[in-house]
Amino acid sequence: NERQQVLLTLARLYELKLGRSAQAFDNLSRAFSLGGEAKVLSKILEAMRRLGDERFAPWVEARLDDDELPDEARVAVQRHRAMRMREDGNPERAFLTYAAYLADNPSARMSERALELLHELIEGIDAGELWAFYDDIIEQSEDAAWAAHIAHGAGMFALERGDTDVAIRYLERALEVAP
After folding, report:
1. N or C terminus: fewer CB in 10 A for the chain?
2. Interatomic CA distance for residues 127 and 7, integer angstroms
3. Given a cut of 80, is residue 143 above it in pLDDT?
4. At 118, phi and psi to the nearest 5?
């Protein structure tokens, strides 16, 4: 989107050439509001966070309260919020908050990218929370192929973690739910 590119260019100019982070933040906020792919929106959020503006945290929370926020934007904000919680020393809260967001509408929100972040967030905390999350999602699923895909992903992640018993349980479950 050309308008979004203009706003992003202005933000860079305000930040790098003029040292005016408040105006840079405002232009990034306006660019974000134009929407777009989650990847682009994530980059905008990262640029906003990097500015260190005290308005950023309240801005993120306000976006999450906005019922009109498009799905791609909500995904980007939720991902960013979880990563920020983790960076701030709250890994368990980050995991639980992001898992709750995914569980609210799993068929629409559980992408490969979402699962990668979930796996990243579980590092350093008890994986039992992750396995309970997977169990709930698989159990609630009405789509056997999707449930099998999720169970397979859980099994492969357990295998990566070196948890063979859990890996076998999920891989067998993948075969059970979609024979």
Report:
1. C
2. 42
3. yes
4. -60, -45
What burial letters (b/e) apply to 155-175, b meaning 16+ CB within 10 Å?
Answer: bebbeeeebeebbebbbebbe
CB 107 within 8 A of CB 92: no
Residue 125 CB neighbour total at 10 angstroms: 16
Give this prediction's pTM.
0.75
* Residue 140 banded pLDDT, cuts 50, 70, 90: confident
Closest CA to 130 of 96, 172, 80, 91: 96
Q: Which amino acid is at 58?
A: P
For CA atoms 42, 60, 6, 14, give the dihedral sign. Answer: negative
The residue type at 82: A
Q: How many CA atoms lie within 13 A of 141 on its CB side?
A: 25
Report residue 92 as tokens: 């368990």
Q: What pLDDT shows up at residue 135? A: 94
110 SS3 class: coil
Measured distance CA(24)–CA(64) in Å, rounded? 22
Residue 167 predicted with pLDDT over 80: yes
Separation of alpha carbons 77 and 93, rounded Å: 16
Residue 84 has pLDDT above 90, yes or no: no
Are the CB atoms for 101 and 108 separated by under 8 Å? no
Q: Give the relative orientation of helices 56-65 and 38-50 as an angle to the nearest 10 degrees.
A: 150
